[in-house]
Amino acid sequence: MAGGGDALRSLLRAANALLQQRRYHAALAVIKGFRNGAVYGAKIRAPHALVMTFLFKSGSLREKLKSIAQATYTHSRNLAYFVFTYKGLLAVQSRLQGKKIPFHSFLAACIGGWLVFGDNNPINSQIIMYLLSRILFGLSRLAVQKGYIPQPKQDPFPLVVALVWGTVLWLFEYHRDTLQPSLQSSMTYLYEDSDVWHDLSDFLIYNKHTDSK
């Protein structure tokens, strides 16, 4: 027993010593990036899938749990693969050119995005839409910081809010098929299901009336 414990402690010391080696830092960063991508993807997707599945999807409990597990796995795997690819390509470019430049980040992310998120499925679509909204805000702020557009005299957020809500409800009412399915489900629940009821049960307690058999 003691010998086994000594061997384990020696192994841990060797592993910790390896982690402190600067020459292996880039490769180790890629590995940890893979780990962090997997963990973060699971943390983000699991609660979201749980809520959306039980709110809007029909089916047995087993089918719902399977759907949650599949969505969580896909998000976790894709994010892990992307971080691994992105950081690996950054390290390669930096090694080849002897330094890191801004274009390296753009090119590495483009290649990683194409390879990992290029499949047009619901999970990838949600991730890209999440990023796109933040990119638009970020580019707008950058344009002001660089002086490409003047600093607004008033906070433009209320105007942005009005345009976003006006546009999305117009699309929902008249071009619904252009919206992402989960958004369609949410808006149907909010704006259409609230127009229909039969008695107090599906007016206050349940969303939809179910006839007893």
TrEMBL record:
Gene: Pxmp4
UniProt-listed Pfam families: Tim17
Organism: Drymodes brunneopygia
Coiled coil: none
Lineage: Eukaryota, Metazoa, Chordata, Craniata, Vertebrata
Name recorded for this polypeptide: PXMP4 protein
Domain of life where this protein originates: Eukaryota
Any single Gene Ontology cellular-component annotation: peroxisomal membrane
